[in-house]
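= Tokenised fold =
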Amino acid sequence: MSNKAVVSLTTGLEDSERVTVALLMAVAAAEAGRPTMMFLAKEAVRLAVEGVAVGTACDGCPPLADLLHRYATAGGRLLVCPLCLNAKHLQEAALIDGATVGGTVPLWEWIGDEAATTFSY
């Protein structure tokens, strides 16, 4: 059985608490040593743009920038939906380090033939 984790996120800063929960799940998986991929679609693609994922969702919540930093430091990867990126007129050059543009085919290739634990937010 694979120990890979996939976290799919479609919500952006319009629901920062949901973003926080998704990031917390991804950080926990990556820091536990699991190969972890976050697939960002719809409004979530904006989170991969430099300077967007800032702020704190709630009293006592960790800052989004800190969560993204921890995720990257633990080896977590961000896969940004190309259709969504284009629909929002965002540029690949503006993405944060560790974020790559790719759709469902690269995600399935990364998962491979093994099972993966998935979370969707």
